[in-house]
Hints:
six-stranded antiparallel β-sheet, Heat Shock Protein 90, Helix Hairpins, 9 helices, 13 strands, 3 domains, five-stranded mixed β-sheet, alpha+beta
Amino acid sequence: MRRALGSVRARATLGATVVVAVALVAAGTAVLLSLWSNLSGQAGTQAERTARAVAADLAAGTPYDKLSLDADDRPVQVVDASGRLVAASEDLERISGTGVAAVRPQVPAGNARDDEGSGDGSGDGSDDDDGALSPGEIDEDVSFSDGSATVDGDEADYRFAAVRVEVDDKGTLTVHAGAPLSAEQSAVSTALTVMLIGFPLLLGVVAGVTWLVTRRALRPVEGIRAEMAAITASEDLARRVPVPDTHDEVARLARTTNETLAALETSVERQRRFVADASHELRSPIASLRTQLEVGSAHPELLDVEGAVEDTVRLQRLAADLLLLARLDAGERPADARFDLAELVREQADGRAGVTTETEAVVEVAGSRTQLGRLVANLLDNAQRHARSAVTVSVRREGARAVVEVADDGDGVPPEDRERVFERFVRLDAARSRDDGGAGLGLAIARDVAVRHGGTLTVREATAGGALFELRLPVT
């Protein structure tokens, strides 16, 4: 049960059914109350009509025994000011709800006004000078009450209306007349029965339709889940989840999932290639260093100390480059220190043969001074390796960007290789013969550092015909 309710389809079906059920109960209750109120109002109108007809006969001087009190088998009572029953329907056997339980008149028919009933009074036996009526006048106000009565052996519920009338020689009389509520009760009962039968059927339809619609809507999601489970089990990142032929959220989810898988596949492949290339690059200096040490151990006079030191330095630099790349790949955030980029460039260019600088006074940026110094140093190292005679470095500010340009007068970078040179362990053929121990990581590190600082690093042809590397960073 818990597992079934744990599905989105089950929760959606249950939620829709509950909402519709609450709405139906509220609407049904409102309908029943409105129906009862309207029908009760109609019964009250009928009772008032009967009571006023009897009151009109009394006002006209009709004796009690001549009153028409048995019309439509509706219970009628006539009560004097003292609260005594002076006239009633002939077949009335029991009554409640009018305040007078008597069903047989307590004075002889046609009896004149009793002394105890003299004076103005209301139908409930209490005097009310403010509500005094003139002889022959029927009160405009009417009061209603609910009760029951037994007429000629038939017991039923009634809506009673009470109307006062002033009669010569009889004082103030109150006429109680009732209208049956059986039709109203039958109508409400029928409506309630229809609701009790129809509501469950309607809720069943709502639940079934919601279940089918959500199953159809979520079918592509199950396909995505199954394919993701298969990809996880097979570790085959080249596979992709199915994209439904729709333009809804599920289709966008599938496309985003495939984009994530593509990015993950690229990252994993890049990592594998990086590990393979790093292993290859590390193998050469380690093997060379080991050979020299083994030879030196057996024949100390043949130990090439200078070569061993060069291999050790090369190995040290490669390890430092790999460590920096690992930190960059891990998303290490650069420091938020502010410093003068022009001064940093001048420091890195100072003492380098053939390097000239063209810098503005102050170009302030924010970030890691160490990493950006490494970036500039790598660009200068690359330019010096490929330059014929001169390298030019310039620093300036263009709007909200600081621009550093490193240009050389070498052979340049072919257009088709201008993105490839920033890949790790990539050394172009022309550069490979001139490489003095580089592992092909300098430009890759420079590009990664630039991106981590919110900047860009690109290469194009310099004015002198060589390569021009342009670094753009946001200024503070």
